[in-house]
Amino acid sequence: SKMTGKACMTLYNAELNSARERQLLIENDIREGLEREEFDVWYQPIVDARTQAMIGVEALARWPRRPGGELKPDDFIPVAETSGLIYALGQFVLRRACQQLMPLSTLKLSVNISPAQFRDPEFENKVASVLGTTHFPARRLQLEVTETYVLENPERARAAIANLKALGTAVALDDFGTGYSSIGYLRRFNFDTIKIDKSLAGLVDDDEQASVLVSGTIRIASALGMQVVAEGVETEKQMKLLRLAGCDQLQGYYYSAPKPLNEILQLPLQQQG
Ligand code: C2E
Ligand code: CA
Ligand code: CA
Ligand code: CA
């Protein structure tokens, strides 16, 4: 039998309520998790495409000690963003990563920054303060931001990027190829690096047209003076094609999944030094 309109509404409300409840539950867990230090930072190697030496790492948040079971960043980062907890979580990741990488003299560090964090007018000062307290050299730090952020408030984005570069820190455009902006528009923001998203980089070994698109993108970005990193490199074939297409750096499961720092340092990847 068909449901009555009222029954439908009740079901709909129940679903909305449970989505909202899940959100509130995770939000509360994040707050407690930050207090109880349940979060960790894991790292994934970034390799020089030519020499295959590890020249840096990307820091990625992990939540292994959550009492209700581990959640992946794709499940907790969005909740942290909408609840404002991303300020505390982001600051934790940045501070912890700078502390951990500090003793490793040449490895570069790349840290993800949410649009909400970058929007904070105090953001650059907070970065400067972490650099000050950890003594991590600004020139070894790169911050990764997405297109969403620059489109939302181009004026603030330009100012923030300029301020960060004045500190000596590099700024990368993350997930390039997932949005709608052209590289021509994005170049105005003076990114040091663009990171080609895995969905685009993964096309390199598909058909002729797809690979022309990937290599064209890489060529333009390089010609505009940006370093190009391909993420999501999973096979030797992709590695070779992306290197041939002109990527400067490569990152992906082919080299290693993200792991705790001590495990990353034991990988059979030669380090630049
Ligand atoms: P992202 O910044 O694009 O990070 C790359 C993601 O791709 C990571 O997922 C990484 O584990 C995964 N990945 C790396 N290599 C490969 C590969 O070869 N194949 C495939 N299929 N995937 C690969 P992860 O760690 O689950 O993080 C997901 C997203 O969550 C990140 O995407 C980033 O947007 C966000 N995130 C993670 N940590 C932080 C953080 O500390 N702060 C902020 N704001 N966002 C974070
Ligand atoms: Ca990233
Ligand atoms: Ca990315
Ligand atoms: Ca493919």
Automatic annotation (TrEMBL):
Residue span(s) of domain EAL: 23-272
Keyword Membrane in annotation: yes
Domain of life: Bacteria
Swiss-Prot/TrEMBL keywords: Membrane, Transmembrane, Transmembrane helix
Protein name: Diguanylate cyclase (GGDEF) domain-containing protein
Lineage: Bacteria, Pseudomonadati, Pseudomonadota, Gammaproteobacteria, Enterobacterales
